[in-house]
Amino acid sequence: MQGTGTLRPILALARATARCVFLEIVQGYAELLSAPAEAWTVVGHGGAATVNVEFRNSDSRETSSMRKLQFAIGALAILGLSMQSVAQAAPKTDSAASNRYRFRLLGVYDASTGEAVEGVEVADVLNKASSMTSKTGTVSLFFLPDGGGLVRLRKIGYETQTLAVSISPSDTVPITVILAHATALPAVVVKDSAPKFIPAALRQFEEHRKAGFGHFLDDSAFRRGETSTLANFLTAHMPGILSVPGPGSAKYIASGRKGCAGPALRTCRSPDCYVSVYLDGAKIYDAGTPGMIRVDFEHLSPIDYSAAEFYQGAEIPPEYNSAGNSCGVLVLWSRMK
């Protein structure tokens, strides 16, 4: 124990002092005995804390021996009191040292490199108290109760370990734990194997696009042009059409390949070969059908549509082919609400 080691020099000094004092007492006593009996008288008063010795001598030749004996006896009494104080302090030191087992150390090291692992959470499974390992990979288990407990070690990238630890005066040896790296799992790629849902209204659009004839705009293209008007959007993204001003601010869609409607040699001041328009498979404008009103694309928004098809000449599918659509066919599909 550390307390006992600290007392050893004090005890050795006390023993040496006691021998010296004892020799002084013997010497003084011998000198007094050599004097006549009627020449001196010793009156002593002693207690647990003090010793008082008085010498009464009629012969001045004996004064030095008396004083020497008085000094020696007093020193011996003081030495006794000092030894008693030291003896009372010793148990306190031993008591403090006896609690050292409460601070048992645990060290954590990497299984691959052998280096200390910092930042490992060392936790008591039952009471949830915990502490972290330092740069040296060590941690004091002061938070465990007397007797010990179940300890869990965790850190990202390492396998979790759980072990029983004893905390008692007989269990003071430091604990060493080796942490292995967690097994890296291969990346998991999730693929959508379910068939993509296509609304019934757009299945015809997808079939036409797969055939490879005509020009097509899908939902992603329409979403990028939501801030524009339908007239500007179509003329910017659909080849073969152009925007023709109408009365007021109206704009119509005409064929960019054939400017004038009718015979090939016919001339016109402005393009008037307006395309036929279908909405969700139903015809809403055809130049060859009397009574139909041209569609004003300037006041329509791309946000209301999810797909578009445009055909000219021999590209036109049979379901959209009629005598009045020589200028081309534009098919619009409404966005699902």
Describe this structure in words.
It is rod-shaped, with a radius of gyration of 56 Å. It has 337 residues and is α+β, with helices and mostly antiparallel strands. The strands form five sheets. It has a five-stranded mixed beta sheet. The protein has three domains: 2-98; 102-179, Carboxypeptidase-like, regulatory domain (Immunoglobulin-like), CATH 2.60.40; 200-334, Ferric Hydroxamate Uptake Protein, Chain A, domain 1 (Beta Complex). Helix content is 28%, strand content 24%. The two termini are 85 Å apart. It has five helices and 16 strands.
Helix/strand layout:
Blueprint: H1 2-33, E1 40-46, E2 51-57, H2 63-98, E3 105-110, E4 121-124, E5 130-132, E6 138-140, E7 149-154, E8 161-165, E9 175-179, H3 200-211, E10 215-217, H4 219-224, H5 230-237, E11 241-245, E12 251-255, E13 276-279, E14 282-285, E15 305-311, E16 329-334
Parallel strand pairs: 3-9, 13-16
Antiparallel strand pairs: 1-2, 3-6, 4-5, 4-7, 7-8, 10-15, 11-12, 13-14, 15-16
The helix/strand class is alpha+beta
How many strands appear in the DSSP assignment? 16
Quote the CATH topology of the largest domain.
Ferric Hydroxamate Uptake Protein, Chain A, domain 1
Low-confidence blocks of residues: 37-55, 58-62
Radius of gyration (CA) equals 56 Å
Global outline:
rod-shaped
Q: What is the C-level CATH assignment of the largest domain?
A: Mainly Beta
Please bin the fraction of helical residues: 25-40%
